[in-house]
Design the sequence.
């Protein structure tokens, strides 16, 4: 059975417009584009590609980029198959940006989620006891007030390294993408004279500041003593909460994002900016003077380990952000002395919570500064973008991601999006349309132009993921509970198939087919704050274009 996979949200008038046809046919086929009244407004022939290794399908490309008339309800037909409907026009992605960013309010811990602000998602404050949390026996003998912050993912833990990269990416978008200072998010703080995005991010920043131990190092995470079952609403969680040990990675995450935040918040709250910068300096010093502390890989009870046995990239990242904020020689020297400063940091995927060197490189490339050798820094970003663009152009589904051995990673959708961030920054640096078009076509994959013919963003498209792994967005298990809110990104194909549902239903599947929209498939279908952050970044970029 043939399938025509399209971006189910739509295509910008001035951007590329392509779809992928999965078919048994090997010769070119006729395609037709119809409007909402069924009238044929364009036609042509497909371009066969042969077998796509990421899906095992025989595929063709449909290119209808020459059609530049706006409208709704367009469909593509080829080989007897008709696509989901889509729009062509301007302003298509503003709702995606708003929803992707509004997601974070529903992830807040320690505060009531107001029904009037998020109809259908109101709930009492969760984990008010986080105001007084003890250390686990191997983490110290003190107690901390670690209230607030965002629940990390489908569980109710709070993790500094995941919170750190999420804060960094949202603030990087705010600093370098237009219009985010005017984005309305309907928050309790709205109208206080501070942009809503910064109001939301501060909820997490304040939590990160509270995770500092008396030593000056930062606790890696805090979560339940034991895993809770599905579903469990935050305010009904019966488990005791504990602080897990400090880590160098967590300490440097605080140094990086507190330094970055201090320059961004200074316009709105100088005292807070001073406090952030002092915390960043202290954390960087503490990380450099204490012995390296790694998060233990076996720390998997009640929360994920988020283990990382290489913190050279975190040292580089923190030094970069401190230099960009202060301009001080001490931090400039730390940047240029790092082996990562001249290394190729753009691998299979650009960056995530455990690999932050490319994030540092992007910050250096875009944020005004006087570091010697900036031309080389920017050239390295463009070279990384060229690599991702070449991968995308060779891919029948236009995916800028090609994992070794076709073994797709956990959270692959975020990796696709973060590679698109590199393309977008290359466009910022060069103005070359090929990078802009690469971002647009790469987003097509997330929104439905994929082997599953599925939008991975809840509420966006015709057929979309809506049963992401979560303890409180659990409609699949309890109809009285909601699905995840609009704008929630699913993790996406994961060849590892670590959970039992994936193992039972997806064994033997290839690449793109290693995904199931089931709440119990935590390895393919979880939601996380650090996966929604690149969705916000890319949605902000394409909203500017549109």
Sequence:
């Amino acid at each position: 059975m043939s399938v025509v996979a399209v971006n189910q949200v739509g295509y910008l008038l001035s951007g590329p417009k392509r779809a992928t046809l999965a078919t048994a046919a090997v010769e070119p086929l006729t395609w037709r584009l119809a409007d909402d009244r069924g009238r044929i407004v364009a036609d042509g022939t497909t371009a066969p590609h042969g077998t796509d290794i990421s899906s095992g399908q025989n595929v063709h490309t449909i290119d209808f980029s020459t059609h530049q008339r706006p409208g709704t309800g367009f469909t593509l037909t080829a080989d007897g198959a008709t696509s989901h409907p889509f729009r062509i026009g301007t302003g298509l992605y503003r709702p995606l940006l708003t929803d992707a960013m509004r997601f974070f309010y529903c992830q807040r811990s320690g505060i009531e989620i107001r029904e009037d602000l998020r109809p259908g998602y109101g709930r009492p404050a969760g984990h008010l006891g986080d105001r007084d949390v003890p250390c686990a026996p191997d983490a110290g003998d003190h107690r901390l007030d670690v209230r607030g912050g965002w629940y990390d993912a489908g569980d109710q833990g709070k993790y500094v390294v995941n919170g750190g990269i999420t804060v960094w990416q949202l603030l990087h978008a705010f600093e370098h993408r237009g219009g985010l200072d005017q984005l309305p998010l309907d928050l309790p703080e709205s109208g206080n004279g501070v942009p809503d995005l910064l109001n939301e991010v501060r909820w997490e920043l304040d939590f990160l500041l509270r995770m500092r131990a008396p030593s000056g190092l930062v606790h890696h995470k805090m979560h339940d003593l034991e895993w809770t079952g599905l579903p469990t609403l935050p305010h009904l969680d019966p488990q005791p909460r504990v602080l897990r040990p400090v880590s160098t990675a967590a300490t440097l995450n605080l140094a990086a994002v507190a330094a970055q935040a201090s320059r961004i918040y200074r316009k709105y709250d100088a005292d807070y900016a001073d406090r952030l910068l002092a915390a960043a300096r202290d954390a960087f010093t503490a990380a450099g003077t204490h012995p390296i502390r790694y998060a233990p890989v076996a720390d998997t009870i009640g929360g994920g380990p988020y283990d990382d046995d290489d913190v050279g990239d975190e040292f580089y990242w923190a030094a970069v952000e401190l230099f960009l904020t202060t301009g001080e020689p001490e931090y400039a020297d730390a940047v240029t002395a790092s082996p990562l400063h001249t290394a190729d940091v753009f691998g299979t995927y650009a960056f995530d919570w455990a690999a932050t060197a490319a994030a540092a490189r992007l910050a250096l490339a875009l944020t005004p500064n006087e570091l010697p050798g900036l031309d080389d820094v920017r050239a390295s970003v463009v070279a990384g973008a060229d690599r991702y663009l070449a991968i995308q152009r060779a891919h029948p589904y236009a995916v800028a991601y090609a994992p070794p051995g076709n073994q797709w990673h956990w959270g692959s959708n975020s990796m696709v999006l973060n590679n698109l961030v590199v393309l977008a920054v290359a466009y910022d640096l060069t103005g070359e349309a090929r990078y802009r078009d690469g971002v647009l076509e790469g987003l097509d994959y997330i929104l439905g132009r994929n082997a599953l013919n599925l939008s991975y963003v809840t509420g966006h498209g015709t057929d979309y993921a809506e049963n992401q792994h979560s303890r409180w967005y659990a409609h699949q298990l309890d109809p009285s509970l909601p699905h995840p809110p609009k704008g929630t990104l699913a993790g996406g194909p994961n060849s590892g198939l670590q959970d039992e549902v994936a193992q039972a239903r997806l064994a033997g599947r290839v690449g793109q087919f290693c995904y199931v929209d089931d709440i119990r498939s935590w390895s393919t279908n979880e939601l996380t704050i650090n996966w929604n952050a690149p969705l916000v970044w890319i949605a902000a970029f394409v909203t500017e274009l549109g």
Remarks:
- The longest strand covers residues 71-78.
